[in-house]
Structure formats: C-alpha cells, structure tokens
Design goal:
The protein has an 8-stranded mixed beta sheet, with helices on one face. The protein has an 8-stranded parallel beta sheet with strand order 5-6-7-8-9-10-11-12. The chain has 2 domains: 3-49 and 347-394, Roll (Urease, subunit C, domain 1), CATH 2.30.40; 51-342, Metal-dependent hydrolases (TIM Barrel, Alpha-Beta Barrel). The model has no long low-confidence stretch (mean pLDDT 96). 35% of the residues lie in helices and 22% in strands. Strand 1 and strand 2 form a beta hairpin. The chain is α/β, with parallel strands linked by helices and 396 residues long. The chain is globular.
C-alpha cells in the first residue's frame, strides 16, 4: 500500500508528512512530494505506533449479542466452569464473536492483538479454529497472535496436554498456562507440561498468574527455575502477576529484580478489582511490559471496551498516575510495550511497517486523558479506521 499522510505530529513532535511505499514507512519530512499517491490529511493530530491489545480473549465476548444476565458467583473456578459448560448454549460462536471483538479494536486504533484462546477437553480445538478463521479473514487489517490457553487446567483434565500439543502444531503461536497452584493444584506437573511443549515446538510462553501474595511468589519462582534451565530468557511472559502488587515491597522488589534478570515480560490489564504490578517499578527495573483489555463484556462480567486508549486510562488510574510523563508511559505499554513483549519493531521510523494511529490532543498525556475517537488508523499503509468507525473496505 502507498499512502501520503500530511500534517501529523509523530509522538507529539513538530508537524511533518509521512510517506508510505509498499506498506513501509519510506520518508518522514515536511512537504513531501509524491505524485499519484493517495493523500490523507492528518489535521495536525498526534501520531503514535498502532495500539496493541497484548492480552485479550477474542473467543469469549458477548459483544453484539443479546444482553447476558450474569448470575454467576465470583470465584475464579466457578466462572471458568460456567463459561466452559454454557458458552455453546448461550450462543458464543468463536468466529463471529472474535471477529466482532477484533474489528472493535481496529476501529479504536489497534494494529496487533495477542489473544488467549481456550483449549479444553469439552471444546477440543473448535475455539482455536474459530479464532484462526478470524485471523485469516482480517489478514492485512490487524495481526492476531494466538495463545493456546488451558483455562480449565491441564492436570485435572486428562487429554488437555495432548490438545495443546495439537493446537501448537496447527497454528497457535504461544503456549499458555494458568495458576500452577490455585487452578492446577500441581505446580510442578503443570509447568513441566507448559515448558515441555514450548521446548518441543520452539514457542514462547505466556502464563496467567492470578495467585496473590506468597502463593503467587512461589509460582513465579518455579517459572524462574524453568526459564533459566531451558535458556528461555526473553521468551516468557506472565500475565496479570497480581502477586507483584503485594504490600511487602522488599519481597516484590526481589521478584522484580529476578524478572528483569531473566528478561521475563509482564502483561497487565490494570484490573480494578485486584492488586496489580506497579508500572513505575517495572519501568525502573527495565522490565518489558505490555497491556490488554482482557475479556470484554462476557460471561465473567459486563465491563470493558475493545479500546486500548481507554485501557491506558484504566491502567493510569489504577497506578495512581497524574504526571504527564506517567500518562505517556501508560500509553507506551498499550502500544510499543506490547510489541516489545511480542517481539517485533513498532516505531514511527523509516523502514518499519506503516502501522500507526492518530490521536486527538495537544500532547500524548492530553490524548490519554481525553480518550477522543481516533481520527485515523493505518495498517501497513491501509486506512482501517476513522473516528471510531471501521473504514469501509476492511470488512471481510
């Protein structure tokens, strides 16, 4: 795709033009002359690398369906069991719903997604197949990375490990895991399966860790051991990591130091109902951090939007951010931070893919606080969104 975008302010800098050739950024300069190339007026808006939802669940949302009356109890296992047992009855088609969720993210400025997709003995690989159809349908509109996620556990459900193996052989990009103690009740066995599959398939790891306090710290230490033993530094991520939000700062500081030393990434959602890792402390330690919307409007709860600028606001409020520099960092983890976790170049620089989002505001901090619709969303030089709506040509 070739495109000339006039009058934008990359990362809040001085106004300039940006030329795209073949989907890549070819030139950034004032008053670019490019005869015959389609032109978009950037209107003097801020330009950032595209927003990235690096932790979500495309297969779960009820977005666009009838209202789901939630009468579930609050425990993690009860919510997981209800969803696994009832999603077909409710009518959550994994392709249709993941398509709706992903297109909502596109309209609000996202260019990349990492989605956890449930793999369990009740559904086999059908949920993976549905999301894979969405990934194929939206090729060129948004990139979707799939995590094979054993949400219902591996050890208590014989056959799940074999399904994960099949999922990784059939298009899943990342090996997932969940609370080694609290859900699996066999931390050694569960982590041996997860890391064994990662080693066999040459895939990275992303483990949900909801466990609090010392229980979560213990699970983290087991993850550290396997990361070091298998030489997987830089290829392991821990999602949520609520235990890092514990009030014992000396204990969590030691864990964060180890995370930095092993180059383990952290993925946060800024969960309002749980303790979360301090973004400032992770930043100061040099830890790679990305962010995501998690589940949005699903059987777990009615909250959430497919909008990573809104998520930057949620994360900023949860972290007590007030200074402009900190609001900018909340935006960073919702964009470039996700790319650093997923492992690809994501900056407005010549030679990089032309994946970018325009924001309304005087400064980046103003844009986060304002949350206004994105004036323009571009994926590899293709316009995919305008002012919170999809560009007409992106519909599959």
């Amino acid at each position: 795709m070739d495109l000339l975008i006039r009058n934008i302010r990359p990362m809040g800098d001085a106004p300039t033009d940006l030329l795209v050739r073949g989907g890549l950024i070819a030139e950034i300069a004032p008053a670019i002359d490019a005869p015959g190339v389609p032109v978009e007026d950037g209107g003097g808006h801020l330009a950032i690398p595209g927003l990235i939802d690096a932790h979500t669940h495309l297969d779960k949302t009820t977005w666009g369906m009838d209202w789901h009356v939630n009468e579930n109890r609050a425990s993690l296992k009860e919510r997981i069991d209800f969803e696994r047992e009832q999603r077909a009855r409710i009518g959550i088609d994994p392709h249709r719903q993941s398509l709706r969720h992903a297109l909502g993210l596109v309209a609000h400025g996202a260019t990349h997604i990492r989605s956890h997709v449930d793999i369990d003995t009740e559904h086999g690989l059908t949920l993976l197949e549905g999301v894979a159809r969405t990934r194929e349908a939206l090729a060129g509109v948004i990139d979707i990375e799939i995590v094979a996620f054993p949400q219902s556990g591996i050890m208590a459900r014989p056959g799940t490990a074999e399904l994960l193996d099949q999922a990784l052989a059939n298009g899943a990009d990342v090996v997932g895991g969940i609370d080694p103690c609290g859900m699996e009740r066999d931390p050694k066995g569960a982590l041996d399966v997860v890391f064994g599959l990662a080693e066999r398939h040459g895939k990275p790891v992303d483990i949900h860790l909801h466990e609090l306090g010392e229980l979560g710290a213990f699970s983290l230490e087991l993850i550290f051991e396997r990361t070091r033993a298998l030489g997987m530094q830089g290829r392991v991520a821990v999602s949520h990591a609520f235990c890092l939000g514990a009030p014992d700062w000396q204990r969590t500081a030691a864990l964060i130091d180890e995370i930095a030393d092993l180059d383990i990434a952290i993925l946060t959602t800024g969960a309002p109902s749980a303790p979360v890792p301090s973004l400032a402390r992770l930043r100061d330690a040099g830890v790679r951090v990305g962010a995501g919307c998690d589940g949005i409007r699903d059987t777990w709860g009615p909250w959430g939007k497919p909008d990573m600028l809104h998520r930057a606001e949620v994360i900023g409020m949860k972290n007590g951010f007030r200074r402009d520099v900190d609001l900018e960092h909340a935006l960073h983890v919702c964009s470039v931070g996700g790319a650093e976790v997923m492992g690809f170049a994501h900056a407005i620089e010549v030679g990089n893919p032309a994946d970018l989002t325009l924001l309304q505001g005087r400064t980046l901090a103003h844009a986060v606080a304002g949350g206004a619709p994105r004036p323009l969303v571009v994926k590899a030089g293709r316009v995919t969104g305008r002012l919170g709506e999809l560009a007409g040509q992106v519909m599959p």
